[in-house]
Structure formats: structure tokens, C-alpha cells
Amino acid sequence: MADPLRVEIPTTETTPLEMPELTGEAGPFSSDPKLVIQSCLLVLAVLTICYFASDIILPIVLAIVLKLLFQPAMRLLERLRVPRTLAALLLILTVFGVIVGVGAALSGPATAWGEKLPGGVQRLEERLKFLSQPIGALQKFLHQFDGAAAGGGGGPTLAETLMKGTQHFASGFFETILILFFLLVSGDTFLRRMVEIVPSFSDKRRVVDLSQQIEENVSAYLVTITLMNIAVGVATGVAMWACGLGDPILWGTVAFLLNYVPIMGPFAGVGLFLLAGLLTIDPLWQALLPAGLYLLIHVIEGEAVTPMLLARRFTLNPVLVIISLIFWFWMWGVPGAVLAVPMLAMAKIICDGVKPLNAVGHFLEG
Hints:
Number of strands: 2
Shape: globular
Low-confidence stretches: 1-27, 149-153
Transmembrane segments: 35-66, 86-106, 168-185, 220-242, 248-276, 283-300, 320-345
Membrane topology: Multi-pass membrane protein
Number of helices: 15
Strand order of the largest sheet: 1-2
Structural class: mainly alpha
Largest sheet: 2 strands, antiparallel
Distance between the termini: 18 Å
Helix content: over 70%
Strand content: under 5%
Family: Belongs to the autoinducer-2 exporter (AI-2E) (TC 2.A.86) family.
Number of domains: 1
Pfam family, one: AI-2E_transport
Main location: membrane
């Protein structure tokens, strides 16, 4: 993924005559202390709900982001005179089929690498003697993992923990797909209802313009990043095959998924490829090659290719990107880290489009 300290999103150009309220200039904060306090309390209430009702809120947010990602394909199918319900069903079945197919293709290599890990601890200890103490602690941890229930007063075993996590993931995945299907089928229903509620014509126009900006900018960002992540996955798979690591489909998929998580994804990828190289390749310098090639691919993509594709851009504050990543990872785990940048970008677009929030949008800007 592109360098998380420089998140770039294509923007649509508008003139002041067309949209007088949608300016990018920072406006003053509200001088009414009651309004400021009420706004802060509202934000705290929303974040509290997001934390305690994460099982409900997270699938909804993820479905909304996926809807923005699939919106260009939906519009293409509509231009081909495909009914909206059928188009939504085709998209979801296609994505589901790709996930099942890739999962089936990766199950064998992933299982083989999982079997190598316990026995590979001794190999790592021999090759990295200067890290013998931490590796010894890791080996002890792996041997005692399944015995934690007996020694820790009846806690859950590894198998029980994995089963519970799998059930939770399956439930959230089904909810996300269900909500996504109805969002794709509904189309602009919510926008039309919002326009009907808003009293004045200028406010109606502002709602429509703001909605179009969010859809176009965020969908363009998500589509571009997804295509770049696919390219990174393909390049990583070829590089891993060329340097002797093997299983190019497995490593390409891993690189593709990790590239969605800023900062943490690339760091985890370097560590993972370093571990795989040390477990598989004998010469030490060659064992470091997979991690080095992955890092090189990430740097080229993040510093050269993606900025060139997203030439018309605005930037997000890098400090706020990192804070957002840490916060949403704490709130929702890995899905929160994946959604952190798109949600921050959506907040920036909304603040730029609503005049009382222009100062917040200016603060979010890089």
C-alpha cells in the first residue's frame, strides 16, 4: 500500500458558482460553547456505541465501504441494462467465489507452512544463536500453548480459541454480505429520502453534491489501492518464487492482504518473509532476500507508482493517520486498521463540504 504518511485521494473540481458552500478553506469554529460541548458529547456517545456494539456496527461500516468499492462496477452493469438486483447478486457471488477459490488454493501451502513452524524453532535457534534466549522463550510458549487450560485453572485451549474466532468471523462475514447486498440493491434510496427531508433547495443541492463527492473520491481511492495491492501481490509472488521460497500464490495473497493495513501491514510482512526465508533457505544472505525483495516492492509501490497514479490529490495529516490507525485497531482489531484510512478520508470530505466543519477539515489536511 502507499506510504501511510501520505494518503492520496483524487478530488473532483467544482467552481464557487456551482457549489458556494463546498470550499476547501478553513472556517472558524463555532463560538457557541453549548454547541461545541454538545458536539463533543455526541462524538463520545457515537464512539461508545461503536465500541460496545462492535458486533453490529463493524459489519455495517464494512458493508458501506465495500459498497463504495463496488459502486463503479454497479454503474457499469446498469449501463449494460442489467437489473440492479441481478447486478448486486452477480458481484457478491463473484467476490464470494474468488474468496472460496483462493482459500481452497491456499489451504494446502498454509497447512504445510504451519507444520514447519514448531520444528523450525530449533533451526532458527541454530542460525541465530545471538537470539537464543528469546527463541527459547518462544519455544517454551509454543509447547505450553495447548496445556494452558490445565496449568492456568481451566482457561480455553488453542483449539477452543480458534473455533470461537472462526465462528465470530463467519457470523460477521455473513452479516456484512447481507447488508452489502441490500445496500447495492437500494442504490440512491437513502440519498433521495435525505433530499426529501431537507427543507431548502440549496440544502438539498448541498446534500447531493456532498454525497457525490464522498462516493466518487472514496470509491476512486479504494479501487486504485485495490488494483495496486493486486500488483504488489503478483510482484511479491513472482519474487518469492524466483528467490526459492516457493508457493507464490500463498505469498502473493499474503502481500495483497497486508498492504491494506498501513504501517502494521508492511512491518508484519517483512517479519513474516524474514521468518519464512530463515526456515527454508540455507545461505544466510539468501535467506534475507525474501524480506528485502518484499520491502523493495513496497517502497517502489508506495513512493513512486501510487503517487503517480493519484496525481490529483489532497493529503491527510500523517500524525492523524497514525493515531487513527492505532485507535481503530484498538477499537475493532485488524478490520478497524483496514478501515481507519477510508473513514478518515470520508470525514475529511464531509468536513470540507459542511461549512461549519471546514476548520476541522483544514485540521485533517496534510
